[in-house]
Amino acid sequence: MNNSTKFEHEHLTRIIMKKVSLVLIFLIAGFQLFAQEPVWVNKSDIKEVKLYQNGAMVTRTARANVNSGIQEVVLDGLSPYINPQSITLKGTGDATILSVSYKQDYLKEKKKSKEVNDLQDLLDSLNIRFQQIQNKKQVITETQSLLLANKSIGGANNGVISDELELMVEYYLKKMSELKQEFLETTLKEKKLNDQIEKIRQQLNVLNAKQNLPTGDIVVNLDAKTKSAINFEFSYVIGSYATWYAFYDLRAKDVNSPIELVYKAKVNQNTGEDWSNVKLSLSTGNPGEGGNQPQINPWYINFLQPAMYGYRDDNGAVRSSVPAAAESTVLLNAPVLKAQRLESVVVNINQNQLASEFEIMTPYSIPSDGQDYQVDIQRFEVKASYIYTAVPKLDADAFLTARITDWQDLSLSPGSANVYFDGAYVGETYLNPAETKDTLSISLGRDKRIVIKREKLKEFSSSKMFGSNRERSFTYEISVKNGKKENINIEIEDQVPVSQNKEIEVKTEELSGATYNTETGIIKWNLTVLPGETQKKRLSFSVKYPKDKQVNGL
Question: Does the structure show a pLDDT above 50 at 370?
Answer without folding.
Answer: yes
